[in-house]
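User: Can you predict the 3D structure for this chain?
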Amino acid sequence: MSRAHNPAKSDDRAAVRRGSSRDARLAVWLLAPTGALLIGMFVFPLLWSLGLSFYDYSALKPQAPVFTGVANYAALLSNAYFWRRFVTTGVFVLGTVTLQFAIGSGLAFLLRDDFPGRKLVVSLLLAPMMMAPVAVGVFFGFIYEPTFGILNFATRTLFGWQVQWFDRPVPAMIAVILADTWMWSPFIMLLVLSGLLAVPKHLTEMAQIDRAGWWLTLRQVILPQIKPLLALAALLRTMESLKLFDTIFVMTKGGPGTATETLSISLYRVGFQYFHTGKASALAYIMLIVVIVLSNFYLRLSARAGRTAVTPSEG
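Assistant: Here is the predicted structure, written as structure tokens:
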């Protein structure tokens, strides 16, 4: 026998479909302004700057842009000056990320165990990374000031000598590395501390029962558990250090000479002092490619660390 047609059920299904269609259209209308804003603020400038990187163009000149293909990229990659800026940036990134990991991890291990006032100490230690980078640059500029700076006052009083921090290349690089390290070591501390507190206690307790030493417990139990967090911290800090501009510019403006001129400051000079807009766009995309390559490396490292991490069930 054929089933009897139920008009009421058909009407209910049609009403549900009409309601779903109205909800979908409403969702589109509600999301459209945000989508248009995102496209206007992010996608369009990216595509526009990518196009400019293939043109000989200056924002100050009335002439129309001239298409030159990959000439801007070739000029940058064949210029020894820009390769020296890559080296300067690499020295800065390596120095600041290494110091931040050493100081931040050390603080995290000191704060792992509970003690009276720990929350207050953590809150105070997190204060530097809440400051604006420009303010940090001004603050450390006063600290390193040769005549009235507190650092040189201390060295003169205690040891009878002082360092002209911004007059020579090596001290200037050390000065900007220390400033960025002071600001962002608490970030590493926060990530490492969260990883340490998430390590299952029974794993460390079993290591103590087996009479494993501190180093063996760290290497075999704790590090495998926090490796993904360490890789994430390294990725974030490397990306931020690569594009750091304001702190260095406020402190040294890339000097003395070009001793602290990183890629970001070089990009600023090319684009906003010399107004080689096309070449500056090409340099920005070269930096973007470097960041993408490093990001993929860190993500693969993080994924490998996550696969090799010891899980509670394996204990």
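The first helix runs from residue 7 to 52. The domain at 75-314 is CATH 1.10.3720.10 (MetI-like fold).
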